[in-house]
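Design request, C-alpha cells follow.
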C-alpha cells in the first residue's frame, strides 16, 4: 500500500512539489511498498482510508517539536475516515462496507489502517465521508473544551483566537450552537469574510486593527461587560492582549501555541479576577476519560448530520502532494481544514 513515511525530522514543506519514493533530503517519502496492516485481534477492523486531515500537531511532529516524539521511521497522521475493508471474527458493531471515522496516535497517512471496533464511529447518512475525516481532532477538541470543560452557556461571550484555523473554526461553530455571543480573531480579508458567513457576532482582523479596542467597542455597543470564555490555540501576544478583555470569573482554555510562544498567565491576576485556567490535551482523554471523548464525537457527528455544524475544507491534496498540504498549514492559508484524500482526480480543490 501507499503511505507517507517520516524517515528523519525536518521541515516537510521544504520540498514544494511531488514527494518521491527516495529523496535523501526530504524528511518525508512516499512509500508504495508498505505492507497492508493485518487484523491484530478478533475484534479489530481494517479501514480503507478515504481521507485524513492535517493537524498542526502532525506538522510539529515531523519537525520534531511536538510533545509526543515517536521513534523513526513512522507514518504520521491522526484523524481519518474510510470504509470498513475487513473485520475480525469477534466484530459485532461493524460490517464490511460501513462508513467510519476515527483517530489514531499515528499512521493515518496511509491507504489502510487497523483499529479496534470500539475506536471507530459510524459516519451517519448525510455526512460527507471526506469531511468526516476532519472532524475528530479539531471538533473533538473544541467540543470537549467548550461543552465539557467550560460548560459554555447561552448568552456568554466567547472569544476565539486563530478563529479561521482548524480548531478555531470548530470552536466558533460550537460556540454558536451553545448560544454564545461569539467574537472571532483572524488575519486577512478572506478569513474575516468567511467567518462573517458563519454568523459570528464580531470579527477582528488582527492584521488591521487592535484586538483590544475592536472587542471593547463591540462589547460597549452590545452593552456587554467582557469576555466569559477565551478559546486560545495561538498563545503569545494575542493571549496577552485578550486577558485585558476578560470578565471576573472568566475561563481560559489553553489549547495550543500556533504562534510558537507559550503565553504567561499571571497567577496573581487569576486570583484577583477569579479566573479558571483549563489546560486541555484532547488526545489524553482517550486514556483518562474515554467516555467523554466518545460521547463528544457521537454528538458532533449527529450535529453534522442535522446541519447544525459544517466541516469546512479549504484545501484537498493527494498523498504525493503532502508537502503542499503542510505548506498550506505553515503559511496560514487554511480556512478550516486541509485534507489528504485518496483517489483524488484533481490535486487541489477549494470548497470555499
Ligand atoms: N490541546 C489539544 O488537544 C489540541 C488539539 C488540536 C490542536 N491543538 C493545537 O492548536 C493549535 C492550532 O491547531 P490547528 O490545527 O487549528 O492549526 P491551524 O489550522 O494551522 O490554525 C492555527 C491558526 O493560528 C493562527 N496563528 C497565529 N499566529 C500564527 C503563527 N505564527 N503561525 C501559524 N498560525 C498562527 C492562524 O490564524 P491567522 O493567520 O488568522 O492569525 C491559524 O489559522 C496548534 O498549536 C495545535 O497543536 C491542540
Amino acid at each position: 500500500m501507499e503511505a507517507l513515511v517520516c524517515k528523519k525530522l525536518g521541515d516537510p514543506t521544504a520540498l514544494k512539489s511531488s514527494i518521491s519514493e527516495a529523496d535523501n533530503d526530504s524528511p518525508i517519502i512516499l512509500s508504495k511498498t508498505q505492507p497492508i496492516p493485518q487484523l491484530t485481534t478478533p475484534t479489530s477492523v481494517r479501514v480503507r482510508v478515504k481521507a485524513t486531515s492535517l493537524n498542526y500537531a502532525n506538522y510539529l511532529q515531523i519537525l520534531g517539536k511536538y510533545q509526543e516524539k515517536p521513534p523513526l521511521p513512522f507514518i504520521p497522521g491522526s484523524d481519518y475516515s474510510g470504509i470498513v475493508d475487513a473485520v475480525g471474527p469477534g466484530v459485532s458493531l461493524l460490517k464490511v462496507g460501513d462508513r467510519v471515522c476515527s483517530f489514531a496516535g499515528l499512521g493515518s497517512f496511509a491507504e489502510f489502517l487497523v483499529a479496534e471496533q470500539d475506536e471507530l464511529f459510524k459516519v451517519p447518512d448525510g455526512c460527507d465521508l471526506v469531511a468526516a475525516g476532519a472532524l475528530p481532532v479539531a471538533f473533538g477538541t473544541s467540543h470537549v473544551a467548550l461543552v465539557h470543560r467550560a460548560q459554555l452557556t447561552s448568552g456568554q461571550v466567547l472569544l476565539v483566537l486563530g478563529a479561521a484555523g482548524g480548531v478555531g473554526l470548530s470552536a466558533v461553530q460550537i460556540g454558536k450552537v451553545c448560544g454564545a455571543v461569539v467574537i472571532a480573531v483572524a488575519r486577512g480579508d478572506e478569513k474575516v469574510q468567511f467567518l462573517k458567513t458563519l454568523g459570528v457576532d464580531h470579527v477582528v482582523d488582527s492584521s488591521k486593527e487592535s484586538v483590544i479596542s475592536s472587542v471593547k467597542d463591540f462589547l460597549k455597543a452590545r452593552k456587554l461587560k467582557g469576555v466569559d470564555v477565551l478559546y486560545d490555540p495561538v498563545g503569545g501576544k494575542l493571549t496577552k492582549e485578550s486577558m485585558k478583555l476578560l470578565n471576573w470569573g472568566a475561563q481560559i482554555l489553553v489549547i495550543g501555541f500556533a504562534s510558537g510562544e507559550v503565553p504567561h498567565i499571571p497567577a496573581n491576576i487569576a486570583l484577583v479576577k477569579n479566573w479558571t485556567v483549563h489546560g486541555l490535551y484532547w488526545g489524553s482523554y482517550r486514556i483518562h476519560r474515554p467516555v467523554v471523548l466518545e460521547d463528544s464525537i457521537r454528538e458532533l457527528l449527529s450535529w453534522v448530520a442535522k446541519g447544525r455544524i459544517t466541516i469546512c475544507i479549504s484545501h484537498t491534496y493527494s498523498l504525493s502532494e503532502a508537502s503542499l498540504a503542510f505548506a498550506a498549514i505553515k503559511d496560514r492559508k487554511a480556512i478550516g481544514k486541509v485534507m489528504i484524500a485518496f483517489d483524488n482526480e484533481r490535486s487541489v480543490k477549494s470548497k470555499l
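Comment from the thread starter after seeing the answer: thanks! Residues 344-352 have pLDDT under 50 and may be disordered.
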